[in-house]
Amino acid sequence: MRLFDPFLYEKAHVLVLLVLTLFYYSILKGKNAKQLILRSNTQPLIFLYVFIFIFVVGFRPVVYAFGDTVNYAHGYEEFSLSSERILFESDSLFYLFMWTCAQFMSVNWFFFLVELLYVVPIVIACYRLLHANMDIGLLFCFAAFSFFSYGVNGLRNGVACSFIFLAITFIRGSIRDKVICSILTVIAAGFHISVLLPAVCMLAAFFVRRPGILFYFWVISIVISLVAGSSVANFFANMGFFEDRISDYIHPDIEEDLFTETGFRWDFLLYSAAPIFLGWYIIFKRKVYEKTYLLLLGTYIFANAFWIMVIRAEFSNRFAYLSWFLYPIVLAYPLLKLKIWTKTQGNKTAVIMLAHLAFTMFMVFFLY
Q1: DSSP 86
Q2: What is the DSSP string of 245-266?
Q3: Domain tally for the chain?
Q4: Rounded CA gap, 222 and 227, in Å?
Q5: Which residues contact 43 (CB under 8 A, 6 or more apart)?
Q6: Residue 84 neighbours by CB distance under 10 Å
């Protein structure tokens, strides 16, 4: 389904988000902390856009403008011509799902289902974490600069991380909730084995009681990267963390992106630091401590620290997204759930929300 030039899809996505963000900016401005946290007038516009996004992006044209979409489509065609399932050593649940769909539906419907699996867990997770403010939380998630890419390019990783995102919302609950968390984690690993890293980070963050440990660990990871980063990156590369089997198996061309530049990426380190600095400010300056926030922040910091240690590796974005998928919720959760600024929380939340989107707009319109 080609609505317009495929290269304009992401730009159109960002422009719609700009309109929505300005709309929510006007709603949030002037609200104090209590009014914001207890907000009851959830707006339906973002939910309408969620539906539109899933439909339009799910039924996108199969062209190289969408990265590995074409590679997945080639593999899907091969699966459709074979009644014998092709076995893969890892990510086997994804390939089983792909092979099964290929037996009775077109590749367009397959991408639509993948988009559902990518977006719906995020919607449920935002509801579980933010309740009345889930619409604003969704806006933060959709406005993350990596969101669109992992809906059309890194499909397995995107879906897997969405399931881990949802799993995190269950780990602090009852025994039943912890079982659900475990099941979601197994499903996620079946789609992309690399999410075992944030899963382990989630487990580690669950047991952290002293938030200072998180920040020390992150700073130490920078030191390790500066001193021995190449060795660490080579170690993980030899373990296969930077492989992309679907591309190797189907098509030799891998789309170049911003991360093909190797070396220590101070720009993306600064980007990663924003929710960490906010967390430091909230916990140590404002003296606000909440277990769910510490869990989200801890999972993000631990996973991001591992990416920093391999930041020099080519295509290290496959590590970066293992923390960045939590970036928007780590920003949004404290702003929408915790009393940080008594009288000006609405204003500050609106400004941070706008700045979050501004970075994405800069990346999409000026660096791509």
Answers
A1: P
A2: HHHHHH-S-----GGGS-S--H
A3: 1
A4: 9
A5: 23, 24, 27, 135
A6: 7
pLDDT tens digits for range 230-272 = 676 666 666 555 554 433 333 333 344 445 555 667 788 899 9
**Whole-number Å distance between alpha carbons of 291 and 189:** 25
| C-alpha span between 60 and 46 (Å, rounded) | 20
Which residue is it, tokens 């401590």? 289
What's the pTM value of the predicted model, to 2 decimals? 0.91
90 in a structural domain: yes
Asked whether 197 and 307 are in contact (CB, 8 A), the reply is no
C-alpha–C-alpha distance, residues 334 and 196, integer Å:
26
Q: What is the pLDDT of residue 249?
A: 34
State the pLDDT at residue 253.
38
User: Is residue 147 included in any domain, yes or no?
Assistant: yes
Cβ within 8 Å of residue 152, ≥6 positions away: 9, 57, 60, 66, 67, 69
Q: How far apart are CA 37 and CA 330, in angstroms?
A: 16
| Token couple for 277 | 């600095």
- Of 233, 206, 227, which is closest to residue 319 (Cα–Cα)? 233
> What number of residues does the chain have?
368
pLDDT at 235: 64
Name residues whose C-beta falls within 8 Å of residue 115's C-beta, 6 or more positions apart in sequence: 53, 54, 57, 58, 151
CB 351 within 8 A of CB 19: no
| Residues spanned by the domain of 355 | 6-367
How far apart CA 342 and CA 33 sit, in angstroms, is 5
Paired tokens of 88: 């893969």
User: What is the distance between the alpha carbons of residues 26 and 260, in angstroms, rounded to a whole number?
Assistant: 39
Does the residue 1 lie in any domain?
no
Q: Tell me, yes or no, whether 159 lies in a domain.
A: yes
Helix segments in the chain, DSSP class H: 9-28, 33-37, 45-58, 69-80, 92-102, 107-130, 134-143, 149-152, 155-168, 175-191, 196-207, 212-238, 245-250, 266-280, 291-309, 317-324, 327-337, 345-362
How far the first Cα of the chain sits from its last, in Å, is 23
Q: Which residue has the tokens 């959760």?
A: 333
Angle between helices 175-191 and 155-168 (to 10 degrees): 170
pLDDT above 70 as % of the chain:
85
